[in-house]
Design goal:
Length: 303
């Protein structure tokens, strides 16, 4: 029998599709979007007049979207404005066709270079075509796009095979499955900043899905709520690898980590209990307890 929370989730997804279609037809740019863009511009120019804000609020004020899924573009830019950059190199996997990901803005507008990994061959071809026009001064491609379904056994080879080792500025992980285990397995690069998705449906528990090299999110559970790791679990892994959690985005999707020894400017380490936000889209159709109740019978690993 399908649980009521799952039914509500599907109905809400249908509602969002209809609403997006309506907005594209009737209101290509809503007044809310205009106001949000203006607010970001004003805050950037006049941050000095702002009242004393919590770190969560300060991060939220710097969110904006250029090519990212949510406000990651703004958060990444602000974090690097606080800690500086070194070689402007990145590794990102789970990029889709490369048009909506966390490093597109860095490549297109800031001249960064690096490696994008994606499992779907059609998306790899699209991403490679999209970034082919970006070249280094010596004519080499700025972005290497490779087909790879990343596992703990192949991730080091995939990164090293692209000629990327040692310190890089950014690692971005979004594979909706073995995220915890893949980050744990990466030693070939030492990113200064790590952006990784956490699973808000796990709440404040310190848990992850068990490692499964063939993990496919919607095959595991029709809700799509069973994947990845909780924020608390990732914070523990981050500390073990030498990283401080500095916050999450307002959508309750991404966690942001900075290498612990780096001077962080206005940023400071935060506890996962303080930084946690529920997943905004999911909480609209089911409480955190209802989300977890729908998937708690599936295998979970406490960390």
């Amino acid at each position: 029998m399908i649980k009521p929370a799952v039914i509500r989730w599907y109905l809400y997804a249908l509602y969002l599709r209809v609403r997006r279609a309506r907005d594209r037809w009737l209101r290509p740019k809503t007044r809310d979007a205009v106001d949000a863009n203006l607010a970001h511009t004003l805050f950037a120019r006049h941050e000095g007049i702002a009242a004393s804000l919590s770190q969560a609020r300060r991060l939220a004020n710097h969110e904006f979207k250029v090519y990212s899924q949510n406000g990651e573009d703004g958060l990444i830019a602000w974090i690097f404005s606080q800690i500086g950059v070194t070689n402007r190199r990145f590794v990102e996997f789970g990029v889709g066709d490369g048009r909506q990901c966390n490093t597109a803005n860095l490549v297109i507008h800031f001249g960064w270079s690096g490696l994008m990994l994606e499992a779907r061959p059609s998306d790899v071809r699209k991403a490679a075509s999209h970034y082919a026009r970006f070249r280094c001064e010596d004519g080499r491609p700025t972005v290497t796009v490779s087909e790879c379904r990343v596992t703990v056994d192949n991730i080091e080879e995939a990164i090293g095979g692209a000629g990327i080792t040692g310190e890089i500025d950014l690692l971005s992980i979004d594979i909706d499955g073995n995220d915890y285990w893949i980050w744990e397995a990466i030693d070939i690069v030492r990113p200064r900043v790590v952006v990784i998705e956490y699973n808000g449906s796990f709440g404040r528990r310190s848990i992850t899905v068990p490692y499964d090299p063939g993990f496919v999110r919607f095959r595991k559970h029709r809700s799509g709520w069973y994947h990845g790791a909780s924020l608390a679990a990732l914070a523990k892994l981050g500390r073990r690898k030498g990283y401080d959690l500095v916050g999450t985005d307002r959508a309750g999707v991404n966690a942001f980590f900075i290498e612990a020894t780096i001077p962080k400017g206005e940023l400071k380490p935060v506890d996962p209990e303080e930084a946690y936000r529920p997943q905004r889209k999911r909480i609209a159709v089911a409480t955190e307890e209802e989300q977890f109740a729908a998937i708690e019978h599936l295998p979970l690993v406490e960390v």
